[in-house]
Amino acid sequence: MRTNLMNVSADAGPSLDPPEHELRYLEETYCSHGDTVHYASKPKFFSHCDGSYVYDAGGTPFLDLQMWYSAVNFGYRNRRLNDAAHRQLERLPQIASQYLHSEKVELAALIARDAERKFGHKGRVHFNVGGSQAIEDSLKLVRNFTGGKGLMFAFEGGYHGRTLGASAITSSYRYRRRYGHFGDRAQFVEFPYHFRGPKGMSKEEYGHECVRKFARLFESEYNGVWDPKAGSAEYAAFYVEPIQGTGGYVIPPLNFYAELKKVLDQHGILLVVDEIQMGVYRTGKLWSIEHFGVSPDVLVFGKAITNGLNPLSGVWAKEAMINPTIFPPGSTHSTFAANPMGTAVALETMRMTQEDDFGAAIMEKGAYFLDGLKQLQRDHAIVGDVDGLGLALRVEICHEDGFTPDKSTMDWLSDEGIKGDLKVGARKYGLVLDVGGYHKNVITLAPNLLITKEEIDLALTLLDMVLHRARRR
Asked: Any idea which of 81-95, 174-188, 434-448 has the lowest mean pLDDT?
């Protein structure tokens, strides 16, 4: 296992926080748990961060391999992006959305022109604050453009948010169970999750088979989605994550979306691409859909566009769907949409990633990391599957048979990493892991895109250590 380590430091002064036992009492008494995840009974407190690391009050570095669910793609306290935020804070931090500021206009133009070059269609950009809010805006765009059609297709394993509209197109019933339905729930379609798909098929063959099953819905009016006499589908759009995020970083074959898009185009169904988690170079390209050679009708983004510094999300859509005659002022609104702080940082993010061959560096690092994960797979029977595209990587934890999902061991590994007692050389480290997957048994790895090879080596060493500990527990 590679063990060349970098020096780790963070320039933080003494903590001014109350003692942890007081904070835990206050959290238990006054904080809603509904806005958190709470995988552990006592979630870890962190006090400061830098680069690829977060630190506890004692100064222990925890190598973060989830980076705030892929929101902090460019590292904690990224100096260039922080400086952009500080400049905007001193110049124009706030302005009502009935007025304009240059950062909004420049950012929208940059994204729209890039999309026109890549996808071959003129379009416009519409801003909001969070990812779920942008999904809600896209639902309005789609329904408005299709004459009010409220039915959508989405994938099994897909995640699009937890607001009422977004949860209706998210495949997990858990997010809807307490609240009922606000509008129509999506029809969920099989995703080509090759590791758990039919045996004997290649990844490409399974992708083709999933498209064939979907296309069968349009063979007869009695399959419930298509009126052949009118040539009209009851469904307005298909919502997809090109690579599934919460579903466990499941990567479909490269032929998949081109084949799916043909079926959609034949039946007048829009393709809406959710890039909230995989966009902004997580996979080595600005948008992950670029790997698959298709043009979306709508693209939704958020999270990493501001490196997590200030909430900003948005929707790019084709001109016919979003021009002011069909989607006029006030169609959606948030007080903080297109806020100057968010758009200024996002504009700097876009400029930064266009200056060098940013994507090539990510693909090189991702291949190096994936090679190390494959070695872990060979060394540990409980690693059932590894895969990756760019720096979106997955490690599926299974029983000793290498296939049966093992959620309890996955939870244990996550808890073990957060103890902060993994000793490498003379220093102790912690490891921040995210849990995903259909069976909640997948380590979904979304490291800092600026991660060094030394840090990747450290990540592999720490992963190897917790996997060895799992054998002895």
From this structure: 174-188
The dihedral sign for the CA sequence 108, 163, 156, 229: negative
Q: Choose among 190, 153, 148, 189: nearest CA to 168.
A: 153
Give the up-direction half-sphere exposure of residue 53: CA atoms within 13 A in the CB hemisphere.
24
> Cα(270)–Cα(169) distance, rounded to whole angstroms?
15
20-70+358-472 and 82-355, same CATH topology: no
Mean pLDDT of 437-459: 98
Classify domain 20-70+358-472 by CATH architecture.
Answer: Alpha-Beta Complex (3.90)
**What percentage of the chain carries pLDDT values higher than 90?**
89
By C-alpha distance, which of 278, 277, 315 is closest to 296? 315
**99-148 confidence digits (pLDDT tens):** 999 999 999 999 999 999 999 999 999 999 999 999 999 999 999 999 99
DSSP code string of 184-238: PPPEEE----GGGS-TT--HHHHHHHHHHHHHHTTS-GGGSSEETTTTEESEEEE
Please state, as a whole number, how many other Cβ atoms lie within 10 Å of the Cβ of residue 473.
Answer: 8
Q: What are phi and psi of 9, to 5 degrees?
A: -150, 160
CATH 3.40.50.10770 applies to domain 82-355: no
Return the domain boundaries, the chain: 20-70+358-472, 82-355
Asked whether residue 4 carries a pLDDT value surpassing 70, the answer given is no
